[in-house]
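Dear H.,

Thanks for agreeing to be a second pair of eyes. The structure we're designing against is below in token form, covering all 359 positions.
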């Protein structure tokens, strides 16, 4: 017990000595990004949906029974079979058409040889000449019958071909609209195929933004799960007179977005202008106002009051005693006080921008 008491007294003495020598806690660790000048425009958020440009409900082109259909989730390439119809009847039609073609071709062969024979006799025999004219006429009719029979054979072969419903593009089977054994009529929908790689965002925007959007512009996209960008592919130039909205379609990265996802787009409502910006995470909101912490050359924190303006994505315009290139705290500001010495880590995105971005 006596030893423990002496040890506690010793620790207390050491702590007092440390304070007496002026030891301080280590500097607060902060992450900074550079204030920079960018072009921003006032914007409005509008809802959009990620859709596939290749989204098809494939239908039967024949009246027949469904024998087989691909499972939901099957990944297919262009030309792969998605469903098969019963083809017995159509195979018989094809065989009948093949026989008709053979029959008509045999008749044409006979008439051609007969015509050649009568042609030789007709030079000295008037009777043979009359028969030659008849054979010539019969041959023309027979050759026409061959073409008709070949057309009928082609139709039968097409019918046999379309007893298999094939993928018009690569994609994923997302829905089976009929079941095996059901009798189908012409134009009955059978299966749904979606290409998840060929996607775009469809949005309807207010008419007051149409003059500030053009093809190839890049717009910010976001939802509750991710942020990204989309490139304007087309702007439908006709607005709805009831809703005062027009349609915009944007190409997006299929590795980031999924068909059916809801997103929000930032659409400009005025011409972009140069403004000084900082990341939104840099703002410290207090009852007395909004401010940011700037780190000076001695790694000390300065509290700077600011007024915010335009915003776009992660950036927001600020007005105050800040210059382009200033180091602004984006992580760790909640623990700072004016004059505090800090340990600085510069964000990778800020380092990659380079000093030219701050001119």
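And this is the sequence the design step returned. I haven't edited it by hand at all.
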């Amino acid at each position: 017990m006596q030893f423990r008491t002496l040890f506690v007294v010793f620790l207390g003495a050491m702590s007092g000595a440390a304070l007496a020598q002026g030891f301080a806690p280590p500097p607060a660790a902060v992450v900074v990004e550079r204030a920079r000048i960018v072009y921003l425009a006032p914007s409005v958020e509008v809802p959009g949906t990620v859709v596939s440009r290749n989204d098809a409900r494939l239908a039967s082109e024949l009246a027949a029974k469904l024998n087989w259909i691909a499972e939901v989730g099957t990944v297919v390439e262009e030309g792969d079979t998605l469903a098969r119809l019963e083809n017995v009847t159509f195979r018989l039609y094809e065989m009948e058409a093949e026989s008709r073609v053979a029959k008509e071709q045999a008749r044409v062969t006979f008439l051609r040889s007969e015509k050649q024979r009568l042609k030789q006799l007709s030079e000295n025999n008037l009777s043979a000449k009359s028969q030659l004219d008849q054979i010539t006429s019969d041959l023309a009719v027979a050759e026409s019958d061959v073409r008709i029979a070949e057309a009928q054979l082609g139709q039968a072969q097409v019918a046999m071909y379309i007893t298999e419903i094939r993928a018009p593009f690569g994609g994923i089977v997302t829905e089976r609209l009929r079941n095996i054994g059901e009798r189908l009529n012409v134009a009955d929908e059978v299966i749904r195929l979606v290409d998840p790689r060929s996607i775009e965002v469809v949005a309807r925007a207010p008419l007051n933004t149409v003059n500030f959007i053009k093809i190839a512009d890049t717009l910010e996209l976001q939802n509750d799960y991710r942020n990204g960008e989309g490139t304007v592919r087309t702007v439908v130039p006709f607005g709805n007179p009831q809703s005062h909205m027009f349609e915009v379609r944007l190409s997006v990265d299929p590795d980031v977005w999924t068909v059916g996802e809801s997103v929000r787009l930032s659409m400009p409502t005025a011409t972009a202008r140069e403004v000084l910006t900082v990341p939104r995470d840099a703002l410290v909101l207090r009852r007395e106002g909004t401010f940011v912490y700037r780190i000076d050359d001695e790694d000390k924190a300065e509290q700077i009051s600011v007024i915010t303006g335009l915003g776009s994505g992660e950036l927001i315009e600020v007005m105050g005693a800040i210059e382009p290139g200033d180091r602004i705290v984006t992580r760790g500001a909640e623990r700072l006080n004016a004059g505090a010495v800090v340990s600085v880590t510069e964000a990778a995105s800020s380092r990659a921008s380079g000093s030219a971005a701050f001119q």
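Two observations from my side: The radius of gyration is 40 Å. Residues 26-40+273-358 form a domain with the conserved putative lor/sdh protein from methanococcus maripaludis s2 fold fold (CATH 2.40.420.20).

Warmly,
E.
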